[in-house]
Design goal:
The protein has 9 helices and 13 strands. The protein is an alpha/beta fold. Strands 3-2-1-4-5-6-11 form a 7-stranded parallel sheet, with helices on both faces. The chain has helices at 11-22, 79-84, 86-107, 143-163, 187-197, 216-228, 245-256, 284-290, 298-313, and strands at 2-6, 26-31, 50-54, 69-72, 110-116, 167-172, 175-176, 201-204, 210-212, 214-215, 234-237, 242-244, 262-265. The N and C termini lie far apart (42 Å). The relative contact order is 0.14. The longest helix is centred in the first third of the chain and has 22 residues, at 86-107. Bound molecules: uridine-5'-diphosphate. Residues 79, 174, 186-187, 190, 202-204, 209, 211, 245, 272, 275 line the site of uridine-5'-diphosphate.
C-alpha cells in the first residue's frame, strides 16, 4: 500500500511510519515540524519506501500518485501547545481535516481521523463509552482543541455519508512512550524528566484527578487493526487502568528509582481550567470489533520511556 501520514514526524505518527514501513508499505510522512521533529524520523530517511513532505495541512495538500490510506494525525494535542496556539489548533482541526478528507476523496483512499478523549470534555459518564456525547465548554481554554476535534469528527461523518468516503475515527486517550517531547508540558514527560533530574514532581491541584495511560506500541497496533477493519463509527483506544495523578507520580518515582519529592502546585494560568476530573476509556468496542486491548504493563512502558529521556537528554 501507499500511505500518507499527516503529523508523521510527531510522537505517534513516527511510530506509525515505522510500523507500516516494517510491513513493506510505502509511507509518506507529512509534517510542518511545528510540534513534530525531524529527529523522530531521522532513522527513516534513505529507507526504501519512505519519503517526507514538509507541509502545513491547513493549506491545500498536494500528493502525486495514488494513495490507499490517508491517516490524519496532524494536530497540537498537548494542552500547553493548544493554549499557546489556539487559532492554529482550530485551523488544523477544521481546515487541516477538510484538506486531508478532500485528498482522501480524490485518491479514493481510506481515511482515518485521530480524534481524542477530549471530545468527552469533563465527563459526566465514567468510564467513557463511544455513545456518550460529552461535556465540553466551547468557550473555555480547552474548547479550541475539543471543538476542533468534534468538528473534525462531524466533517468525517459528513464526507462518509455525503461523499461515501471510507472513513475511520479513533478517539485516543492519554498515550505515552519514546519520542514524546520532553517540554510538551504533559504529565508523562513532565514527571519522568523531573524524576530523572531529581526535581520535585509538580502535581497540579490535590492529585485526585484521574487518567489512564496507554503505551504507544499498543495504540499503533490498534490503529493497524482499525484500518484493516470495516468499522466506521468512532472507537476508543486507551488503557483502561485508571490512576490518580498522585498515584501516577508515585509510580514514576518507583520505576525511575528517583528520590524526588512530590509538590502540589496550583497553576495560575489557564492550564488547569476545565481540566477533566476523571478520564478512563471503555474499550468494549475495540475489544469486540477489533480483538484489541493494550498489553504493555505501565511499569514496562514507563521504563522504556524513562530510558528514552535518559538517552536523548543525557539525564542520568
Ligand atoms: N498534570 C500535573 N502535573 C503536570 C502536568 C499535568 O498534575 O506537571 C495533570 C493535569 O492537570 C491533568 C493530568 O495531569 O489533570 C494530565 O495532564 P496532561 O497535560 O498530560 O494531559 P490531559 O490528559 O489533561 O490532556
Amino acid at each position: 500500500m501507499r500511505i500518507l501520514i499527516t503529523g508523521g514526524a510527531g510522537f505517534i505518527g513516527s511510530h506509525l511510519c515505522d510500523r507500516y514501513l516494517s510491513e513493506g508499505h510505502e509511507v509518506i510522512a507529512m509534517d510542518n515540524l511545528s510540534t513534530g521533529s525531524e529527529e523522530n524520523i531521522a532513522h527513516l530517511f534513505g529507507k526504501p519506501g519512505f519519503s517526507f513532505i514538509k507541509h502545513n495541512v491547513t493549506h491545500y495538500i498536494y500528493v502525486a500518485g495514488p494513495l490507499d490510506y490517508v491517516i490524519h494525525l496532524a494536530s497540537l494535542p498537548s494542552p500547553v501547545d493548544y493554549l499557546n496556539q489556539p487559532i492554529q489548533t482550530l485551523k488544523v482541526g477544521a481546515l487541516g481535516t477538510h484538506n486531508a478528507l478532500g485528498l482522501a476523496m480524490a485518491k479514493k483512499a481510506r481515511f482515518l481521523l485521530a480524534s481524542t478523549s477530549e471530545v468527552y470534555g469533563d465527563p459526566m459518564v465514567h468510564p467513557q463509552r463511544e455513545d456518550y456525547w460529552g461535556n465540553v465548554n466551547p468557550i473555555g481554554p480547552r474548547g479550541v482543541y475539543d471543538e476542533s476535534k468534534r468538528f473534525a469528527e462531524a466533517l468525517v461523518m459528513a464526507y462518509h455519508r455525503y461523499h461515501n468516503v471510507d472513513t475511520r475515527i479513533v478517539r485516543i486517550f492519554n498515550t505515552y512512550g519514546p519520542r514524546m517531547r520532553s517540554d510538551d508540558g504533559r504529565v508523562v514527560p513532565n514527571f519522568i524528566c523531573q524524576a530523572l533530574r531529581g526535581e520535585p514532581l509538580t502535581v497540579y491541584g490535590d492529585g485526585s484527578r484521574t487518567r489512564s495511560f496507554c503505551f504507544v506500541s499498543d495504540l499503533v497496533e490498534g490503529f493497524v487493526r482499525l484500518m484493516a477493519s470495516d468499522v466506521t463509527g468512532p472507537v476508543n483506544m486507551g488503557n483502561p487502568l485508571e490512576l490518580s495523578i498522585l498515584g501516577f507520580a508515585e509510580k514514576v518515582l518507583d520505576v525511575t528509582g528517583s528520590d524526588s519529592q512530590i509538590t502540589f502546585v496550583h497553576p495560575t494560568d489557564e492550564r488547569t481550567k476545565d481540566d477533566p476530573k476523571v478520564r478512563c476509556p471503555d474499550i468494549t468496542r475495540a475489544q469486540t470489533l477489533l480483538g484489541w486491548e493494550p498489553c504493555v504493563a505501565l511499569e514496562d512502558g514507563l521504563r522504556q520511556t524513562a530510558d528514552y529521556f535518559r538517552n536523548t537528554l543525557g539525564l542520568a
